[in-house]
Amino acid sequence: MSSQVLLTPTIISKESLVILENNLVAANRVNRKFENQFVKIGSSLTIRKPNRFTVTTGAGLVIQDIAEPSVNISINTQLQTAFQFTSQDLTLTVEEFSERYLKPAMASMANRLDYLVLQNYSGVSNWVGAQNVNPNGFSSSVQLVGQRMDDNASPQDNRTLILNPAGYWSVANGLTPSFVMPTAKDALVKGYLATIGNYEVYMDQNTPKLATGVHTSTGIVSSNGQIGASISTANWGVGSGTSDSFTVGEVVTFAGVFNINPQNRISTGVLKNFVITAAVTVASDGATTATLQISPAIVTSGPYQNVSNGPSDGNAVVVVSGITGASSSFTQNLAFTRDAFGLVTVPLEIPQGVDFAARETYRNISMRVIRAYDVNNDVFPTRIDILMGTTTYYDELACRLGGGL
């Protein structure tokens, strides 16, 4: 009796999803639980953030206004991989079909999903480590991101650290004396180092790089009392003859403006990090002022206070994610908890009039498979699609770790 299996669209789509999910790294470690809501509300979803309140003393009633914070995620990216096979191929077993078609196709799809998820780094303001230096052990990796995330009251569960290959193997080498055989095997074979300091440490070749602006001088805050997401600064390019510039994703600090614990609002003693959200270049005609668009917005009081105090006139503005001089590109390793980022895939419509089509969902990833028939060449063009969106849900639940060029 023949052991060959006729491939149905459901078998293909289910097999594809299993292979895809097994190849994911970053995309497998983020929040993926909001897909079903898109069926009713369309292509944009509003995610509520936790409410915060202040505590007062005394018997008098103090009513606090509620203004729920939120973030939007848009479904704006359609990923697709396509191939074709002959009618003879249709009678191959699922295992052979997986080897020849599904595994390489899903490896590319998983690679792209991981890449897009990791691009959310540009919305993360927390940054530790050294520019142009790969982490090489516990003290230069897990210890740094762990302390910063603890300062921000991040949950202890579901913590992940994604390192580029150079950083991953440098850290692995630094931890060699601590390796036991199972840990060493996972590090060598699976790209998974271990659970260290409550972080699951993975290697991902899609770890992004930040192309910095040109920094020839140290700017200053140009006036007192500034809050919000726009900060006026001055003193750029003075005496250098070169225009300073900033790119989206760079991280700056303001002297004297410290991070606070979000619950007790006590200073952590560490300067608050702010990420640049809009590119800016100081005019080359001799102007030295620039308005920096930053995130998070500076809040100096109330339940959502996030700094010890606002910046003062003359406070130094320091770029902590780059180096002085020409533009450079640095690795942005990334630590986060599951809710720091969101990945949403939603069900695509099933068209009529095709040879076959199917849609399956596996572990909150929705995928559609469509096959047509080309009678002239006796081949079956097949495409696999994912409609997705990804964004940063909670900046405070993630932290970048500097790396090499």
Search tags:
24 strands; seven-stranded mixed β-sheet; six-stranded antiparallel barrel; 405 residues; alpha+beta; 18% helix; globular
SSE map:
Blueprint: H1 9-23, H2 38-41, E1 44-48, E2 70-74, E3 77-86, H3 94-118, E4 127-128, H4 142-151, E5 159-163, H5 165-174, H6 181-189, E6 192-196, E7 199-203, E8 209-211, E9 219-221, E10 228-234, E11 245-246, E12 251-254, E13 258-260, E14 267-271, E15 274-276, E16 280-281, E17 290-298, E18 316-319, E19 329-337, E20 341-346, E21 356-362, E22 365-371, E23 379-392, E24 398-402
Parallel strand pairs: 4-24, 5-7
Antiparallel strand pairs: 1-2, 3-23, 5-19, 6-7, 8-19, 9-10, 9-18, 10-17, 11-16, 12-15, 12-18, 13-14, 15-17, 19-24, 20-23, 21-22, 22-23
Give a nutshell description of this structure.
This protein is an alpha+beta fold and 405 residues long. It has helices spanning 9-23, 38-41, 94-118, 142-151, 165-174, 181-189; strands at residues 44-48, 70-74, 77-86, 127-128, 159-163, 192-196, 199-203, 209-211, 219-221, 228-234, 245-246, 251-254, 258-260, 267-271, 274-276, 280-281, 290-298, 316-319, 329-337, 341-346, 356-362, 365-371, 379-392, 398-402. Strands 4, 5, 6, 7, 8, 19 and 24 form a 7-stranded mixed β-sheet that branches.
